[in-house]
Predict the 3D structure of the following.
Amino acid sequence: MRALPALTAITLTSGFGLAFFYAPMDADQGFMQKIFYVHVPLGIVALCGFVLGGIMGIQHLRTGDRRYDLRSYVAIHLSLILGVGVLLTGSIWAKASWGAWWVWDEPTLVSFLIVFLLYACYQPLRFSIEDPEKQARYASVFAVTAGAFVPLNFIAVRLAQAVIHPRVFATADGGLPAKMQLAFTVCLLGMALLYVTLWRYEMAAKQASWSLRSLKRRLGGDEAVAARGRSAAPSLPVT
Amino acid sequence: MSDTLPDNTGYVAAAYLVFLGLLLIYVAIMAAKLGRVQRELQELDELAARQDAEREEAVAR
Amino acid sequence: MRQAVGAVLRKDLQLELRAPQAVPAMALFSVTTLVVFHFALQRNTVEGELAAGVLSVTLLFAAMLGISRLFVAEREEGGFDAFLLAPVDRTALLVAKALALLCFLVAVEVVLVPAFALLLLGPGLDAGTVAQLAGLLLLVDAGIAVVGTLVSAIAVQTRTRDLLVPLLGLPLLIPVVIGLARGATPLFLEAGAEALPGRWLLVLALYDLTFGLLAYALFDYLVED
């Protein structure tokens, strides 16, 4: 597991290398199709992260174990960061393809925007509930609802577009030449590994902060520890 | 294809740079947090050392 | 369970009938919104896609008003605690509130649709079109009712409830907007109303079912302690 960051770096770099030097040039879009190798893996991993947040939410509600709430929080937090990347790279792709910084023609991008706007409310929601136990519970209900909404939303938006605009980017579906598929798969793997790496860092950082607080309290007494005040981040019950 | 290449290269580069930029910003924020944790750990270390010294003094008396 | 649902539903409906606040406000708001649309779009009549869009947005925003207020009375006057003490399934509260919201939305539409036909809609509405529109709106209202009740229950316990209801509710309700706008467009065509595409009814029904089950499963966790 200590090799994870290195493995992530190697996988991502090889993935991008394959994308640029091994995969053939796309017949329709030319060089700009290369954005697809960073944009789509980011998107897939971000969406899986959102759904993972929902699953962790279910576990938290079922077991009451606040560590699941922490996992749900980290999953959604990371997916939001990746989501910013998805929207920015998607916008750049739109500009390169259609000449405008945003287009409504690409249903997956539109669906992603809706999902992103929904999840952007996650932290304000948490912040507006003071009691930590209630905050965790309500956040989990939200995570589950939003997680179930992700697939529904994609279906609905896709249906809404199919009537007027045919799917332009057939590259995201099957029908990819084998070389492109390999490069794409490696990039996807790299993004997934990146997510796991960042996840572990977030969890470790949280653990460290809490151990620090606990140590402070034991050494310096309760006055040494500043009052936490309101926070959107989950906290485990004081042991 | 060669006349579209310069334009599209810029966009492709921008997309990948956005990705790298986000990653670097994340790493920078985490590094800052780590710095703060290390500083506080050092303070606690000094606090513990002081408490040890006081305890020894009390025992010596 | 059914008795509990009936009791809470009757209480809410009676409260509204005796001292009407939510429904008149929502209805008035929706008519005013139609006037705003006249000026914002700079048109005397709308038809087809534009008409469906105006109707969808107006209904959605009027619904937001009603959703914000759904649990406020319970919260402020201890209705939650009273309910928890009673030996009933807590999801009865969810079902009752969702049904109440559904009734309010239907009441608002009784005002909104004629006003819309009068003020802004270009082509007229005949009986067949109205029937199809009513069916579509029923499924739409069910979706808004379920999601609205869930969102309202989440938001009522926070300090920023009137901000959170639209923030949470609007993205979640986008599939409903899609269903309503797409489904209603053929009904409002200038050339003559065409039949409603069945697929949108199916999409809305699927949405209602999914969120209905989800809300049913999750509501317990919102009404604890």
Q: What stands out?
A: The mean pLDDT of chain A is 84.
